[in-house]
Fold this sequence. Notes:
Elements lengths: L1 H21 L3 E10 L3 H9 L1 H4 L12 E6 L4 E6 L5 E10 L3 E12 L2 E16 L2 E11 L2 H9 L2 H30 L2
Antiparallel strand pairs: 1-7, 2-3, 3-4, 4-5, 5-6, 6-7
Amino acid sequence: MKKVSVVALVVFAVAYAVFLKVQPKTFRVTRSVVISAAAAEIFPHLNDLRKAKAWLPWTASLSPVRVTAQRDGEYLRWEGLGLVSNGRVTIHERRPPEFVRLRVVFEHPTGKRYQEWICFADLTLKPAGNRTEATWTMWGDTHPDAMLLFFLDNQQQLMGGEFEHALETLKAMVETSAGKRTAALP
């Protein structure tokens, strides 16, 4: 019985190693939404992480989260209190009013220390008539611990769904505030 268990464990380990070897080493997930507002009205929600915490998927999730924004909105840290991991976001690059690149670090507890997974999120605003197309592209190296999760639940669906929800939340926030401003005009 022990011999069968050891052989099964070795076969599983080899199969998992082969599985990891054939998985893509990088990922890219892109989602877009059209917002009825000018890029200049949307950009402050991307450029200040104190505002972004209301729509970013890691801080506006259903799980309880403790969020801290610092350095004039250029740094945001979240601590998950459930299924949400810990992490931090830093504004890495910006070109007002059309582009913000975020450096996103997910922290996963591994024993007594945290293992980090670093990736980037590009938030791009492109005029579309009297509206603006907001695009979120997240990219980076695929973390070994995430490969199995990505395989079981396609990363486009797993991450893409979160991004779609975040963009729809951003759209609602911007269009609501734009509507209030329009209604206040004489």
